[in-house]
Amino acid sequence: MSGFLQNTFNGLVSGAFYALLALGLAVIFGMLRVVNFAHGAFYMLGAFGAYVLLAEAGVPFWAALVIMPLALGLLGMVLERAVIHRLTRLDPLYNFLLTFGLTLILQDLVKSRYGTQSSPYHTPDELSGSVDFGLFDFPTYRVFILAFTVLLCVAVWWVLGRTRVGMVVRAATERPELTRAFGIDVGKWVTPVFGFGIALAGLAGVLAAPMRAVNPLMGADLIIVVFAVVVIGGLGSIFGSVAAGFGIGLIQAWGEAYLSDFPIVSQTVVFVVMAVVLLWRPAGLFGREEAPA
Amino acid sequence: MSARSEPGLRAPQSRTEVAMSSAVDTPAEESARPTPPSGLLTVARAPGWVRYALLAAGLVVALWLPNGLYPAVAVDILCWALFAVSVDLLLGFTGLMSFGHAAFWGTSAYVTGLVAIHAGLPFPAAVLVGALAAALLALPIGYLAVKRTGIYFAMVTLAFAQMVYYVANEWRSVTQGENGLQGVPRTFFGVDLSDDYYFYYTILPIVLLGLLAAWRIVHSPFGRVLVGIRDNPARARALGYPVHRYKLTAFVLSGFLAGLGGGLFAVGHRFVSLDVLHWTTSGKAVIVVVLGGIGTLWGGVLGAALVVRLEDWLSFSGFEAIGLVTGGIFVLVVLLFRRGIWGTIAHLALRRGAARRR
């Protein structure tokens, strides 16, 4: 029983990363119709930034947790204005290609400066150790990640559901022409929303730094799994993306624990789930049917 | 006039319309897709002598190639040309962007390598088996992927290709994992093909056959239906064409051609590594096509030649960060040069032709 809870907890923690990345992708997609391939690269930059800040300037984790999302969000806004904006009128595939090119560039920039070795990042002292839940203890840092992510998702959900900004974003996501017809200036929200999505990716990166190997390639493999996650959840649905993120994290963790003789299972189960969803509900579990094929 | 819109008129959306409606802040001065059927139309409209002259020039270059470049680079160019054309068959002529074509290129490379090592068949037979294996893999992946279109299709194919990559990485007893398959032989009826120069001329007919097949597909009634589906899927369905089945057939054919290229690539390098299945390989194939010109078929061949030559030159001059250059090219092409090389030439020629007729 306690083993099961342990696995479930670990699944939720890795699901938290999927959820944060999927949330950013979904918000950006909703507002701009851009699938941001570079999302994984920004996640990597977040982790690397935290590492470099600590190693070369002695900036602690907590400061990095604020600095990196802000800096990357700003970089995202600059990129949106400079390049992505020019292609939003075209087929979304062009922006997918553009952000793919950006991924290669960002990845190689970091690689040529720091090599492909993984760098260790120490868990901040306040969060080392473990929390005792009676039956079992969990590493404090992981408890922190889970709580932080859930809070963040709830906060984003609240902003989208209960504030005027959120209403505009949701309206623009679902019916862009109609929203404009009501006289709402959708355009002025595009850049901040893009920056916000990127900031979420950077935040996920900083959170990942103490837990995962920090290296230039950490984002790319992850983002492909996140693409599968958003296909499962339905990219148009913000709730669906987050739910699918946690769900896939859980399934992977259980697969890893109970089918440990077949390590391939936990790596590929997300794609199998994607295949089943495509057969059963092609638009994703929470997605709406897209324009006729 | 009543403001009521006919549902039947609203539903069919061309790619252009989809792109326009998804625009965020619009002044809609620029049209979305740079002249979709460019290649097809210009080639069809060009006078006969131009087409034959281009064909002759292409064949002459193909025959000369290993004399002007390192033969090993020339071999790579041939393989990548097939790969690019297979991607363009989907991207340019069916309107589906496969971002996971490394799955077919790489699977065929591994199957070809294994067959060549263990069965001792002449290499063209091994390549054929590899390409068939790729086509077989394309069947389930395509069946699932064609349920989605546009950007989702790209994500789904990318994800399935990553799954193939993980499987190959874990299945070490067969693929040798990180070490890769070493010593793929160039068995060919007792002829010594260890020199890349002669190997080039041995595979040239196979590659030309593959390119011819792609050309035949595009210019067949089947290919015209594909273009019809690309431009207006709803209309194609209304006309009674089973859209999914057409897309799936195109996908499997494309997987076979990609596999043909991948198998030859494995024999050419005598070595298969996990790189052939990596997502960067899928991405590179799409770059090559965009650089050459989407929907131009032969543009992909040009793009392949340029990218392979450039990468060889970069790695020869000891430049490490190749991704910086390929990524940079990608960004520039997508931003400034979406018609690609062949597409731009065709566009200019078309404009001149139109001006002269006026």
From TrEMBL, chain A:
Keywords per UniProt: Amino-acid transport, Cell membrane, Membrane, Transmembrane, Transmembrane helix, Transport
Keyword Repressor attributed: no
Transmembrane segments: 12-30, 37-55, 61-80, 92-110, 141-160, 189-210, 222-250, 262-280
Alphabetical list of CDD domains matching this protein: TM_PBP1_LivH_like (cd06582)
Compartment list: Cell membrane
Keyword Cell inner membrane: no
Pfam families from the UniProt entry: BPD_transp_2 (PF02653)
InterPro entries in the cross-refs: ABC_transp_permease, BCAA_transport_permease
Segment forming the signal sequence: none
Membrane topology: Multi-pass membrane protein
Family label: Belongs to the binding-protein-dependent transport system permease family. LivHM subfamily.
Protein name in the entry: Branched-chain amino acid ABC transporter permease
